[in-house]
Amino acid sequence: MDIISAMQQRKSTRAYLAKEVSRRDIEDVLFCAALAPSAINLQPWEFIVTHGEEKERLVRRLLKARLERQVKCGPGTSKPLPERISRRAKEAMAVMEPHISASGHTFDRFIEEGSCSFYGAPVAIIVVIDKIFPVIRYLDVGLAVSYLLLAAQAKGLATCPTGLIAAYNDDISQMLNISEDKEILIGISLGYADENSPVNAFRTKRVDLKEIVTWFE
Ligand SMILES: Cc1cc2nc3c(=O)[nH]c(=O)nc-3n(C[C@H](O)[C@H](O)[C@H](O)COP(=O)(O)O)c2cc1C
Predict the structure, then answer these.
(1) CATH of residue 174
(2) Of residues 79 and 196, which shows the higher confidence score?
(3) Fewer C-beta neighbours within 10 Å, C or N terminus of the chain?
């Protein structure tokens, strides 16, 4: 698959088949993630891979933590977003909601429980950065995450970046022995998409380029 097709076809997948991903395939996508560029080649990303019983243990802990703390999905900003931006999230929700309802779930619960259980994907990858790095280096990690998502797509695998789990960083750190020096940035669900699930039957839209690009010529 060429890179443009992978970009066009990738989407966040929220239902997975009960089919294992081989160690070789997991390593392939991580190898591609590590090909991402980074400032002075610092490669500040680190990946913690869980699958099998360890992933189930992590999911059990996250679901318990969710019941106790009920963290909501949100933009994480300290001020309300301007309307032209918050509209993008509302539009995405409007696209997603009917499909999620069709699967018998309420939207918030589906997203919150789903994120905490990596939507049933057989593999959960936790992405961390050493706290020694300034926030700008998170950008480098974001590039590596993009590479990972696209490499997975090109190999016929599906993914969902799950930022919500970072709210439960203490639980994750304890379960996976992650030192206090590391910041948990995001989780990535990885597996084979359940193409028959209604929750995978939509695609979010993007704003027109004119909304996000300024030209000087
Ligand atoms: C940094 C980041 C955090 C995200 N966190 C979550 C999450 O916690 N739960 C979830 O279901 N989707 C999450 N997503 C997926 C977004 O909802 C999704 O990328 C967006 O709606 C665009 O849809 P698409 O990925 O299908 O193109 C996240 C995506 C990114 C990039």
Answers:
(1) 3.40.109.10
(2) 196
(3) C
